[in-house]
């Protein structure tokens, strides 16, 4: 495990200790229902039209993507605090391939395991969402995510953590994610993860030569809710291919039983200091108003 991944594991482990949960507790909670909702991205069908970007922005009250830039594909674009989904173009061994990038909605998300206050939540439906009213601003979720997805609003006086929510509210009303609903080429499919894996296998084995025999997200980082199938190996498309098949919360299980307790209790102490400071500030504000 390299230094970067070790830091992610430590972040998740510290949070688990602070909340009184063991690695086994985290795993048991995450594995109760692994057949979550998800999205299958078929990269052989994506034409790079960016309609998913526009639909995401409209559905979530985000600024419209910049359509005035004719050279948007000349640089690598990533999801930001103002744009939760981004399309990139790659020159590959089989020509141009367009790749949609957003939160992967892991089955056992490191961001949720690392969150001291459960502001980052793995929902029963599958999407991983951020809850503003519970966030203390520690940004452990950003450190822990193996895909570098959560983004912090550094230029806002009241900053939030921003990321794709897989249109969780629409799902609760029986709808589908806006990006899936508005894709004109059927490059995106929505449904139960088990059904999406079956669909992916049907396409791979039903179209010899069209796809590489690899479903990205089936096992990476313990499995993800967003899955990909591709005409070329994923290392040609900027995907992380160095990820373990074990989830980061599961990696913390042995860590929690072997490290000194001071390392586990340190996040809890920081959280207590934050709460005490907030309480003191509130008391001071009250005294000031009374005087």
SS summary, helix count: 10
From the coordinates shown, what is the CATH architecture? Answer: 2-Layer Sandwich
CATH topology: Alpha-Beta Plaits
What number of domains?
1
Name of the top-level CATH class:
Alpha Beta
Helix content: 25-40%
Which structural category fits the helices and strands?
A: alpha+beta
Helix and strand pattern: HHEHEEHEEHEEHHEHEHH
* Low-pLDDT sequence parts: 12-33, 285-291
Side by side, the strands of the main sheet go 8-1-9
Radius of gyration: 20 Å
Number of strands: 9
Distance between the termini: 57 Å
Instruction: Specify the overall morphology.
Output: globular
Mean pLDDT: 83
Biggest beta sheet attributes = 3 strands, mixed
Account of the protein in words:
The chain is built from 10 helices and 9 strands. With 291 residues, the protein is α+β, with helices and mostly antiparallel strands. It has one domain (3-252): Alpha-Beta Plaits. The strands form 4 sheets. It has a 3-stranded mixed beta sheet. It has a two-stranded antiparallel ribbon with strand order 2-3. Strands 4-5 form a two-stranded antiparallel sheet. A hairpin with a 5-residue loop joins strand 4 (120-122) and strand 5 (128-130). Helix 1 (3-18) crosses helix 9 (248-258), helix 1 crosses helix 10 (261-290) and helix 2 packs antiparallel against helix 9 (248-258). The longest helix is centred in the C-terminal third of the chain and has 30 residues, at 261-290. The radius of gyration is 20 Å and the shape is globular. The N and C termini lie far apart (57 Å).
